[in-house]
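Weekly structure sync, notes
Attendees: PL (lead), two postdocs, one rotation student
Agenda item 3: pending single-chain targets
PL asked that the sequence for the first pending target be pasted directly into the notes so everyone works from the same version. It is reproduced below exactly as submitted, 147 residues in total.
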Amino acid sequence: MRVEPRFRDQIRCLVLKDRRAKALDEALSPGDRVAFNGFLVSVVAVLLAPRLGDRCGIEELAVFSDEVAAAHRAERRPVNEFVVEEILREVYGVPRLFLATAVPPRTISAAGATIVRYLNNTDSTVAADIDRILDTAVDLHRHRDPQ
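Predicted structure, written out during the meeting:
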């Protein structure tokens, strides 16, 4: 699936702590949000590769999810660590947590942004390398969702 330039811009703004990130997020239509979330999962996958490697088990994902949520809460921001873990599980292709109910798209966006923010805050190379990360994420997204 094609990645809209505004989706890339939104992630770039999030990483570079540009205030436009919030406005771009709020401007997403319901359909755009679903497409954005698909790309966001690809971005998370690219960001996680150096940190967690290509293969990761459920236990490691749960520990990392708790780490992300704890850091987010320390900033006094609400976060649902189960949705964070759901995104991590999607990246690594392990069984989902939410089989009986769908997670609202806005909640997925917020959890994905939490992961991106955490990885950016704990790795100084993310912001410096954001264009390469986004290019890699676009390529990965095309392979994940070839529509």
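Discussion points:
- The chain has a mean pLDDT of 91.
- The chain is about 75% helix and 0% strand.
Action: rotation student to compare against the earlier draft before next sync.
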